[in-house]
UniProtKB/TrEMBL annotation:
<dbReference type="Pfam" id="PF00356">
    <property type="entry name" value="LacI"/>
</dbReference>
<dbReference type="InterPro" id="IPR010982">
    <property type="entry name" value="Lambda_DNA-bd_dom_sf"/>
</dbReference>
<dbReference type="InterPro" id="IPR028082">
    <property type="entry name" value="Peripla_BP_I"/>
</dbReference>
<dbReference type="InterPro" id="IPR046335">
    <property type="entry name" value="LacI/GalR-like_sensor"/>
</dbReference>
<protein>
    <submittedName>
        <fullName>LacI family DNA-binding transcriptional regulator</fullName>
    </submittedName>
</protein>
<feature type="domain" description="HTH lacI-type">
    <location>
        <begin position="12"/>
        <end position="66"/>
    </location>
</feature>
<dbReference type="GO" id="GO:0003677">
    <property type="term" value="F:DNA binding"/>
</dbReference>
<keyword id="KW-0804">Transcription</keyword>
<dbReference type="Pfam" id="PF13377">
    <property type="entry name" value="Peripla_BP_3"/>
</dbReference>
<keyword id="KW-0805">Transcription regulation</keyword>
<dbReference type="InterPro" id="IPR000843">
    <property type="entry name" value="HTH_LacI"/>
</dbReference>
<keyword id="KW-0238">DNA-binding</keyword>
Amino acid sequence: MAVAADGVRRPAVMADVARLAGVSLQTVSRVVNGGDHIRPETRARVQEAIGRLGYRPNKAARALATTRTATIGVIVTEGSLWGPRSVQRTVEQVARQAGYFVGSVSLDVVARPELTSAVDHLLSQSVEGVIMIAGYDEALQLVRQQDVGVPFVVVMGDVPEGGGDTRDEQFDAARRATRHLLELGHVEVAHVAGPANWVEARAREAGWRAELAATGLRPAEPLRGDWSAASGYAVGRRLAADEAVTAVFAANDEMALGVLRALAEAGRAVPGDVSVVGFDDIPSAEYLVPPLTTMRQDMTALGRLAVCRLDAAIRGSDEELPPAPAVELVVRASTGPRRGPAG
């Protein structure tokens, strides 16, 4: 807020920001609208002034002046899961830093009426583009059938145009996770798979199968969970009863957490009796007992890539986009050599 000559507090305007930061109105406008060619120290000074004054750009005035609303929409499904939730948080933060206003809609159920209603709600706010965070078939199919009229970017499960195929990356990462266990001498590598209607779950399962086949091993059928720790615990109890299984690759860390509990309750030591690998590297993974070996996904980079793609589409730019973030094997104490002969 700013204080007028009569002592009355009023909402800050751009001139107040310029005065406090010691820059021109044009410079403030360029910072607010995400303009380029501004020195970092100048941008920081303007942003500090904006924060101190609580300045809020006039959305209507910006739209009239630029014929743009600088507003994007975000639709998120399965927002209770760590991956979608992390991507959403990054998308909203990075979009605001890029000068966009962000309107978000969370969907518990994705069917045509719900998705259509969410899109209509965002379009009523004159969004210039939409990012949807969804990874399962029904949502992706509905998105492809939507005629939105503005750029539409899908994160998790879809192919990022110009940025590499995330499904290939998931497939390759699952192969590396399985290879890590095989190189430790394990010959019975079980898989706790994600839901069959998720693109990423299928890619990870396919990578596990491919790596076992490449070494002449025939995989047993995977045990399927729903991404939750509870489902990992349920299938983990079955795995714990099979002494032939000495290694488990879980399609995400939450299910791996459930597997670890089931093995502990059955008296099977990790990694002495069974090695466990997860996927995602959730913040708690390194604090589990034992710390979890996992495939690290950079959800922050994934969210940034989504904003880059949408921004380029809105601006009609054909600039080269950054590649999809790589998935990294993080070895911790939950994996170790197989006991006894490896044959």
